[in-house]
Every structure is written in structure tokens, then in C-alpha cells.
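Suppose a classmate hands you a notebook page containing two proteins, each written out with its sequence and a corresponding row of C-alpha cells. How would you begin to make sense of it? This section walks through that situation. The first entry is reproduced here exactly as it would appear on such a page.
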Amino acid sequence: MSTTNFRPAGSDWIRGISVKQPYAACILAGAKTIENRPRAWSWRGWLLLHTSQQIDRPALRVPLIARTVRGRELPTGAVIGVARLTGCHQDPDGSPPCTEFAQPGAWHLEISDVQALALPIPARGQLGPWRPTEDLVDQVLQQLPHLRP
């Protein structure tokens, strides 16, 4: 678990990312260290890991995903953890994928320092990186007090 402190609420230090289940659960489990996106993200820093309203049901039949999420709850429409976005890349054409979860042609957001919340926080997300409200950040910090500045 990271002991790196967050910067105070109200600064430009954190974004949200909305990810469908069961992919968000795979990130929280530490198995999925990249998130596939159609465009590159230039922003780097802390992310609130938010689950979209929908579950990708066919993905639950993919053996890699099924093994990773077995026994885990799949909450939707909530912040379930935090992570650090450290980079963004595309695999070169014809090269092997950077991870088992990498999709060819997608931009791969590099995720590390994943920390789960004990209780999901209901919240609305959106496509692309989004700015959380100070209230939402405060609710996250209540559950992860060691991250306080």
C-alpha cells in the first residue's frame, strides 16, 4: 500500500476515471495494470476509480477475467478505489501486447498504487478524465485517512 499523501482538495491534482465492471474489479485486484482507451491521456496523477452503471456481461466469461474477479463484488455507479496514472502508451504495430489485458490499437493508461475503499461511494462519472467534487474527494479521504496531506 502506498503511503504517498494526496494534495489538498481544491487543487488540480486528481481526476476520476469511469471503468465498466468487471474491468474495474480487475484493476482493484491488481491484475489489470493498464486501462484501454481510444485516445491518449496527457494528464498524470491520482485517479478516483469509478465504476460505470453497466456490467460487461460477456467479459465475465473470459477466463482471465473470471479468475480475477471470482468471489469479488461488482458494484456499479460508485467510486471503489484510487490509483495513480503514471503513463500512457500504444503498443507498436506487430509487437506483443504489453499485458494480457492490452487491446491492440488502443491507448494504454498505465496504472499503479491501487488502493481499495472499504465501502463504495455512489457517484456519477463520465467519459474521459473528469474532475471530482470536493465533497466526493472528502468522502474518499474519510476512508483512506493515511492519504491526508
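The notebook's second entry, a different protein, reads as follows.
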Amino acid sequence: MHVLILGGTTEARRTAELLHGLPGLRVTSSLAGRVATPRLPPGEVRVGGFGGAEGLARWLREHGVGLLIDATHPFASTISFNAAEAAATAHVPLLALRRPGWVDAGPAAGDDWHPAGSLEEAAAILPELGRRAFLTTGRMGLAAFAGCDGVWFLMRSVDPPQGPRPARMEVLLDRGPFTLEGERELLARHRVDVLVTKDSGGAATAPKLVAAREAGVPVVVVRRPGGPEGVRVVGDPEGAVEWVARLVGCGP
């Protein structure tokens, strides 16, 4: 059985690790190619887009894919909708692997969270909360903050940003997981007074929320976009492996 994992996330790599080598399975991981030096999972790897839902459906048929796992980033909604359409067209069972969001668990005592429906909404409320922002929403959405002239930004991403960006910005190239001690030091050293983040969930980048809580720093949290309806969802790689094992009849 050929299993295609749409990923690039920590959960996608872990799923590939758990499935790799199981009898009767061929595992291919597909990466979008937005990161210059991604951490590659075991098994076969392809990099780049498919050409929308139609292109993905064609790839599924041509490569004999029997199961499709959408383990992309929670904010990569376009590929998730394409995956749902392609799976229905090619008659391939689809599973969505989505790590639980931080908003799902709710703020802890001492948190000062300000929800935003989009990056643009986050940029609109940001000046009311602080003047030195730690921006952890990724390099692809910087244009939304280009008009925040009264705010200085510390932007952290894996690769250097391109395109429109805030006029006053320092770029920090780094890759998680991040430690609580490191996040505390970063907030203090740069005198950060507001944090902007997406509700990505997961433990790798959660320490910044704890550091902000301890420092009394408000947090603008961008809510997740909606996903396709009718798709089975699990919250961890182990759940994805159970789904594959149940359909294929194999196991660790």
C-alpha cells in the first residue's frame, strides 16, 4: 500500500518515521519546498506543489496512492481543501492530522491573550498593545504588518523573509524547538512588550507563551482558518498510524 503524507511539520516527520519499514507499506512524504533546508523524513520524499486539487488527484492515481494523510501546517488551508477534493476525485481515503491548538486548551492564569481572525486584524490591534513586537507568524505574512510604522519588530523564521515588510524590523533566523529559558532571555534582551503568534499548537514553540505570561506581555493570537468538512481528524502521529494499520491490516 502506497501512503502519501502531505507535510513538512514535526507531526508529518514523526508519522513517516512510525510508518517507515512496516511490512506492505510504501511511504512518500511531500514537502511544499518553502524551507531551503528542511528536515527530511525517512522514506521517499518529493518537493514542490502538485498544481492544485486536479494535479494532486492525478498524482495519486499515477503513483498508485492508496491512503492520503494531510499533516500540513494548521494554517496551510489551501492544500487541505485541495487534498479533500483530490481524495474524493481519486477515491482515496483521507486523514487529517492536526495538532491541538493552544486556544483549544484556553489561556492559563496570567495569560493576556487577544484573539485575531487574520494577520491583518492582528496588525490592526497590535499598536494598541505595544511598541516592541516579537513576531512569530512566519515570513510569508509579513506584508500584513508593513504599515505598522509605530512598532519595532523582532521577526523569527527559518529562512530570510522576502517582499514587503515593516520598516523597523530585526530578523532572527532560528528553528525550533525552543526552550523556556531561551524565550525568557529573548524577550528581556529585546525589551519585547507584545507577542504576535498563530495558534499553531504543539510543544516546540509553546515556551514563548509561558515566557510572555511570566513577563506580563500581551499576546495577539491569530485563530486557525477553517478546514474542509467531512474529513476524519486525529491529533497525533500515533492516531494516524492506528488509522493506517486499521485500513491496511499491518502494525508495528
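A careful reader of the second entry would note: The CA atoms of residues 86 and 249 lie 24 Å apart.
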